Amino acid sequence: MPGLRLAGKNTFITGAAGGIGLETSILFAQEGANVLLADISEAALEKAVNKVKEFLPSGSEQKIVGLKVDVSKEEDVKKAIESLDAQGGVDVVFNNAGIMHADDADAVDTPEKIWDLTHNINVKGVWFGSKHAVLSFRRNNKTTGSVINTASVVALVGSATPQLAYTASKGAVLALTRELAIVHAREGFRFNSLCPAPLNTPLLQDWLGDDQAKRHRREVHFPTGRFGEAIEQARGVLWLASDESGFYNGQELVIDGGMTKAYVTPE
Ligand code: NAD
């Protein structure tokens, strides 16, 4: 499949069973990659793998595999990434799994257990994925490798609708990604963050439900007047994963319809 943007690359995607992770899995597969889809939800994972396979050209020998992984457990992440050694080792790691808990609130009301749960998944999960990406790149003598970590616009701008544990966790993702990018630059390993704005995915939409006031409170800040779509994030991730972004390192790719650059938005 010469000409495809990820031809022959081995890719590992967490939170792959829904939202941004699933759209990215589809795009990676369409661009010729082998995709290891990792998610904590086995039922959703099975559906996701079948969906991704629908997009493969007939006769394709690409490997599209699902694996139950809890990113907050190092052993799960290690085993998953090591499983790709048999096919030459991982080339691209997308540490995307994340949660935003309904009980996450402000400094006063956020329960400590929600803080710890959020940070175990959103921060430790990204650390484990990054750590085992580096170990795998080295073990398989890679001279290039791309790691993409999902943060959020709330790591860049303050919000009066607080979710303090989530916001702090995404700030940590930006900081650790930036440092890893510098530490590993001479080895050819790139680390970048993705900062999505609020999206039409279950993570946010289930939480907003039918509450029109809550929805409007967010939509009004978009110059475009709408939430983003997961596929719009996935297209950015594809660029970060491919060699086209070879000189892009340690950065925050903000895909937000202009939200973080806006003061007063159009009526
Ligand atoms: P989503 O809820 O649609 O998908 C997240 C996936 O992660 C789910 O399939 C879920 O089962 C999985 N997951 C949850 N905990 C896990 C764990 N411990 N181990 C492995 N998998 C786990 O969410 P999404 O909107 O696609 O979000 C993906 C990423 O984007 C998250 O990191 C989220 O914080 C971030 N983000 C989302 C938005 C938004 O508005 N949706 C905005 C900014 C950033």
Radius of gyration, Cα only, in angstroms? 18 Å
Q: Helical percent range?
A: 40-55%
Residue fraction in strands: 5-15%
The general outline is globular
Bound molecules: nicotinamide-adenine-dinucleotide
Low-confidence stretches: none
- Please report the total strand number as a whole number: 7
What strand line-up does the widest sheet have?
A: 3-2-1-4-5-6-7
What's the SSE pattern?
A: EHEHEHEHEHEHHHE
Report how far the terminal alpha carbons are from each other: 48 Å
The main sheet comes to: 7 strands, parallel
Give the CATH topology: Rossmann fold
GO molecular function: oxidoreductase activity
Protein name: 3-oxoacyl-reductase
Keywords: NADP, Oxidoreductase
InterPro entries: NAD(P)-bd_dom_sf (IPR036291), Sc_DH/Rdtase_CS (IPR020904), SDR_fam (IPR002347)
